Please model this.
Amino acid sequence: MIEVYFKTVRDSAFNQISEIRPGSWIYAKEANLEDLTRIAEVTQIDINDLRDSLDKYELPRIEHIDDNILFFVRHPASHEFGLYTETLTMILTNSYVIAISPQRSEIIENLIASNTNLGTTQKAKLILHILLKITQDYTNSIKRVRASILGAEEPPKIVDSNSIVVLTKNEEILNQYLTSLVPMRNLLETMASGRYLNFYEADLDLLEDLMIAMHQSEDVCSVNIKSIRSLRDSYHIIFTNDVNRTIKLLTAVTIIFTIPTIVSSVYGMNVALPFQGQPYAFLLIMAITLAFSIIAVFLFRKNRWL
Model:
């Protein structure tokens, strides 16, 4: 679905218009091949160059095609199980700014619904503003993941498999964020080099702020991944110790109960045995067996095997 918006710096809101005209902002949400075909006709970009915008696994990068600049980025989302970022493609042409999303992009729709002093004719500034919103979304999402980790952190005595599952899921989320943040940082550095765009001084300041924010998000994401791995290793050690204690206990109990088993096995043989002529042979043998068992329990307790 294609929507077209136009806004000057004097307007308070983005106005949706029916026809595409120079200076407008084209937003293709839940885009399909039909939408790409129309965009290709408007921009004169080969549709094969636009197909990557529908790839849900596309990595962030920047491309220069004739006079058009294509920005492939990713932002936090969870529309599909196991995928925590989604593709967003922005195209800067001589006449338009274009945003293509295979799903409904909350970042774009929130920007459209907001009151901002941005105009659709300020093409480079509009793209920088979208990138800044994406960076802020990453920062907020990383904070939510961190809060989820802290909320799920358990005392050592009650750590269970659910704790490991929560950590593993959050680690996967942060790994996907980091996989997008690193190439996006490279994208911003390429933009700052001036090879693709010439910025006004105010836009350069915004770009510098954006690069700083991107570095901070990347660093926070890396730190949280390290924290998760450290916590998971701690849980693994706790699980290992619990298993060792359980095996040690079961081994000790097995040895203790082996003593009466051996005695009863010996006295189950049809041969001459000690005390077989004594009237209190059974009680005597049981007493000796109990004594050996108590000695074994005492030794195991002394050595902290029980």
